[in-house]
Design brief:
Elements (H helix, E strand, L loop, with lengths): L2 E6 L5 H15 L3 E6 L2 H5 L3 E4 L4 H10 L2 H10 L4 E4 L1 H6 E6 L3 E2 L8 E7 L8 E8 L4 E9 L3 E5 L4 E6 L2 E7 L2 E4 L10 H14 L6
Parallel strand pairs: 1-2, 1-3, 3-4, 4-13, 5-7
Antiparallel strand pairs: 5-6, 7-10, 8-9, 11-12, 12-13
The structure holds glutamine.
Glutamine (GLN) binds next to helix 5.
Length: about 210
């Protein structure tokens, strides 16, 4: 059994995520392919998908235009595990407002019942690194790289908070859907990618991944 893992390659950190996922699969000894995906046809055959960071308004518009938005939503609702990173987590959310400009009416997948504040950490801290804990998935220490990162201002029922930084929620999970405000692909630590790929593996082999 070989896993088909996709990295949505519309915009953002595609290569870095592909490398982290490749390394993580090898470290876990799981057989799988990592490919860049873009079209509805590419997405249809996946066992798991990473939505990289970038600019969520652009990713949303382009996914809408090329028809991948609907397929993505359906696949995730049918149980395909997904890891949304920064703009990718914004894409998964139900509501996203920009800290400065407020409501932006951007296309969102509306998969995770969370409310997001885009660019949440303000100008003077647009990019920074911080040591964070992601205890619910057994990662006590992780170097979080935040780049014009969002934070989660509210979670709906069933959404688990995985991590907070300075009182703000920076990682969440609901079933097979994980979102992080920071960029795990920009560190050498593959533990988040490994956790995600184990989820993909158990979901493919029919075990309940939760
Ligand atoms: N600030 C970007 C947005 O709102 C996200 C930044 C990122 O993905 N690093 O879409």
């Amino acid at each position: 059994m070989s896993l088909n893992v996709g990295i949505l390659s519309i915009q953002g950190d595609v290569q870095e995520n592909a490398m982290s996922a490749r390394t993580a699969l090898d470290e876990l000894g799981i057989d799988g392919n990592v490919t860049d995906v873009r079209t509805p046809e590419d997405i249809m055959n996946l066992d798991g998908l990473i939505l990289p960071g970038g600019e969520s308004t652009t990713i949303g518009q382009m996914s809408l235009v090329n028809g991948s938005m609907e397929v993505l939503k359906k696949k995730i609702e049918d149980g395909m595990p997904v890891l949304g990173i920064c703009a990718g987590m914004i894409m998964l959310s139900k509501t996203a407002n920009d800290r400065v400009v407020g409501k932006t009416d951007q296309p969102l997948l509306d998969i995770l019942d969370i409310q997001l504040e885009r660019n949440s950490f303000g100008r003077q801290r647009e990019s920074f690194e911080a040591d964070i804990s992601i205890d619910p998935i057994n990662i006590p220490s992780f170097n979080g790289v935040f780049i014009r990162a969002p934070s989660v201002s509210d979670v709906g029922s069933g959404v688990e908070v995985l991590s907070r930084f300075n009182g703000r929620i920076v990682a969440v999970r609901r079933g097979n859907v994980i979102g992080t405000a920071f960029h795990p692909e920009l560190t050498d630590d593959t533990s988040i990618h490994k956790h995600f790929l184990e989820l993909v593996n158990s979901s493919k082999s029919g075990r309940v991944a939760n």
